[in-house]
Amino acid sequence: MLTERVGMRLAMKKFLKKYWHWIVVTLIPVVMILVSADLTLVGLVRTQRSVERLEREIERYRSQIEEDSLFLENIKDDEAFEKYVRERHLMHADGEEVFLVE
């Protein structure tokens, strides 16, 4: 076992001694690309969180659109419109008084 480790170390040293310049030439562009492209783990996590937040926001807007569409369908009726205006904006007809009960 010990001789295997020593043999492996010698083989690794020999490999690095022979091919060190190719390793450096290969690693420098890879590191530059990773740094310049912001492909760090922190950047990826930040991007994933942003995507999840935006997906939740899209879903919230879709549900709001559904609610508003249903409301607009219901308010097309004159009686429903009048009821909405009276309740929401505290409007009243001539000769009527509005009392707020809280």
Concise structural overview:
The chain is mainly α. The protein has 3 helices and no strands. The longest helix has 35 residues, at 2-36.
What is the fold's blueprint, element by element?
Blueprint: H1 2-36, H2 41-75, H3 78-89
Protein architecture, described:
The longest helix has 35 residues, at 2-36. The chain has two domains: 1-37; 40-92. The protein is rod-shaped and about 105 Å long. Helix content is 80%, strand content 0%. The chain is an all-alpha fold and 102 residues long.
User: What's the helix-strand series?
Assistant: HHH
User: Total number of β-strand segments?
Assistant: 0
* Helix segment tally: 3
Low-confidence stretches: none
Q: What fraction of residues sit in β-strands?
A: under 5%
Overall number of structural domains: 2
Please describe the structure with a list of short key phrases separated by commas or semicolons.
single chain, 80% helix, mainly alpha, 102 residues
